[in-house]
Specification:
- Helix content is 31%, strand content 14%.
- The chain has a six-stranded parallel β-sheet with strand order 3-2-1-4-5-6, sandwiched between helices.
- Strand 1, helix 1 and strand 2 form a beta-alpha-beta unit.
- Helix 1 packs parallel to helix 6.
- The relative contact order is 0.19.
- The structure holds magnesium ion and zinc ion (ZN).
- The site of magnesium ion has 8 residues, from loops.
- Zinc ion (ZN) binds next to loops.
Amino acid sequence: MTLRPGSGQAHDRAVFLDRDGTLIDEVGYLDRPERVVLYPWSIDAVRLLNRAGLRVVMVTNQSGIARGFFTEAIVDEVHAHIASQLAEGGARIDAYYYCPHHPDGKVEGYAQKCECRKPGRALVDRAVAAFGVDPARSFVVGDRWLDVELAQAVGARGVLVKTGYGVTEIDKPRAHVTADAIVDNLIAASSWILRQC
Ligand SMILES: [Mg+2]
Ligand SMILES: [Zn+2]
């Protein structure tokens, strides 16, 4: 397929994917790669998006770094572990972006307010710079309202999944935060997204 910039091809689109509670089990602060458990449908869900030509970009808040629970090196190991499991199933996440900050953190350099902690948009802007994707043609999938808020902040469509915190989030609606879709899990999110493309 020949891609022309700005021509509205699939590669203009990205799916910004939350990690914990969306792609893998929500286990609190994930401090060891051995604790990574992908949902049974996650590999298929990502591969569907790959095959449709959408960029798949992880965007995850990892305040455990600022809080001193684990290091950036651990997060990189976790992502390498996820990448190898996906690769075994023929699926690929194009970029793994995370925010290591938190204003209440205690680790110097990370304890700060930032623009990249979701629903801040800096991680999305990084993907725009790296891949030339158009947020207005893109999607955010996550299990928290803050993921949907990120979608609203960048003009993307927001999909809330009912895995992880999602099942309790739907009982706590937030003013001015409206999901474009609320679905059972990531594979349902992928199907919904492909129907919009
Ligand atoms: Mg999550
Ligand atoms: Zn940050």
